[in-house]
Amino acid sequence: MDPLMDPFLDAPFDPWSPEFVADPYPAFAALRAAGRVHHYEPTGQYLVPHHADVAALLRDRRLGRTYLHRFGHEEFGREAPPPAHEPFHVLNDNGMLDLEAPAHTRVRRLVSKAFTPRTVERLRPYVARLADELVRGLVADGGGDLVARVAEPLPVAVIAEMLGVPEADRPLLRPWSADICGMYELNPGEATAARAVRASVEFSAYLRELIARRRKAPGGDLISALVAAHDEGDRLSEQEMISTCVLLLNAGHEATVNSLANGANALFGHPEQFAALRAEPEGLLPTAVEELLRFDTPLQLFERWVLDDIEVGGAPIPRGSEVALLFGSANRDPAVFTEPDALDLARADNPHISFSAGIHYCIGAPLARIELAASLGALLRLAPRLRLAAEPRRRPNFVMRGLEELLVAC
Questions:
Q1: Neighbouring C-alpha atoms within 13 Å toward the C-beta of 293
Q2: How do residues 344-387 score in pLDDT, each as one tens digit?
C-alpha cells in the first residue's frame, strides 16, 4: 500500500486538509520514516522529505525548474498549458526562478548588477524606520492584527521603494501578488488561474509603463538600474525586466509576510524562548531569525522537473516526472538538526534551506533577513508586553504557508 495513503500512518500527507495545513510536521516525520521518496498520486509528483536529498536535488543539473530549454511539451510527455493561461506563463516563465542555463545565467548576472549588496544595504535605515512606524501604530491602538498591520505592509513598501513604485500606486501590488501566487499551490483550479491571468495582464501593463518612464528619466531605483544593466552589449529584454520585478515582489514579499507571521506565532507558542529573546535581543536576534525561518518554513514545497532519469534511495524517477522537494520536512530532519521539533533561538548550527540552494538560491535572502530582524527588533523594543489576543487564523494554502490573521494585544 502507498504509505501516503496508509490508514495506519499517524499523519497521512494531505495538503488540502485544514488539519494538515495547520500542522504538517507530524506527516513529514511519517514520510521521512517511511522512506526517501514517495509517489503521490493526487498530484503525480514524487515527494522528497529528507534534508540531504532535498539539498542534493536542488543542485542536481539533471533537474530543472523548466524543461522547455531542452524539450517540447509533447516530447516531455506533458500537455501545453491552455492558451487562456498564456499571460501568466509569459510573465512567470521569463523570471529567474523558472529559467535554466544558459538563459538563467545571463538574466541572473544582469539582475545582480542592479540588485547589489550595496543596494540592499542602502535600504536598511528605511526598513528600520518603517518597522518602527508600523509597530508604534500597533502599540498606539493597543494591538490589532499583526499580519495586516506589520507583516504585510512592510515588505510591500520595501520592495516598492526599491523598485521605485510611486507611493500612491502601492496598494495595487499586494492583490496582484496574491492572485499570481495562487498558481503556485498544488493543482490550482480554473478560478485561481483566471485571477492569476488577470493580475498578470494588469501588473505587466503597469510595469511596462513604469519602465518606459524610467527609460526617459532614470532615477536611483532598481527599475532604472535594470534598464541600465548590460554586459558586453547584452541587456535584459523588457519582458525579462517585467518578470524580474514581479518575481522580486512576489517571492520577497510573500515569503517575508509568512516568515514574520509564522515566526511571531511560534514565539507565542514557546513563551520560554520568547522570554529569552526579550531578555537578550541583540545577542539572540541573528540566530533567532534563522531559527524562525527553519522552524516554520514559509515556502513548504519547491517543484522541479526531472530532465534525465535519476534514482533517490534506489528508487528510479524517470525523465518527465516532477519532484516536490519538501522544505518544511527537510528543515525538521533529525539527521541534520538536534531536537528538530524544538524551537531553539540560540541554535548555532542551522543549515536550513528556506531560501533554497544551488543556482536558484534566493537573490533576496539578505533583504529578507534585514526585514525580519527589523520587524522583530521593533516588536521587542516597542511592544514589550506583546501577547496573543485570539487564536491565530491560518490561510488554506500549503505551499506558501502562513497566517490570515494574528490578533495581538500590546
A1: 23
A2: 999 999 999 999 999 999 999 999 999 999 999 999 999 999 99
User: Which domain does 53 fall in, by range?
Assistant: 18-409
CATH of the domain at 203: 1.10.630.10
How many CB atoms are located within 10 Å of the residue 202 CB? 15
- The set of residues, in sequence order, having a beta carbon less than 8 Å from that of 6 and lying 6+ positions away, is 12, 34
142 lies in a domain?
yes
Rounded to whole angstroms, the Cα distance separating 250 from 86 reads: 19
Task: Output the nine-digit C-alpha cell for 403.
Answer: 497566517
Helix axes 103-114, 238-269, angle to 10 degrees: 70
247 close to 350: Cβ distance less than 8 angstroms: no
Other CB atoms within 10 Å distance of the CB of residue 8: 7
- Reply yes or no on whether the pLDDT at 24 is more than 60: yes
Grid coordinates belonging to 375: 520587524
DSSP 150-187: IITHHHHHHHHHHHT--GGGGGGHHHHHHHHHGGGSSS
User: What are 221's three cell numbers?
Assistant: 531605483
**197 vs 180: CA distance, rounded Å:** 7
Q: Say yes or no to pLDDT of 262 above 70.
A: yes
How many structural domains does the chain have? 1
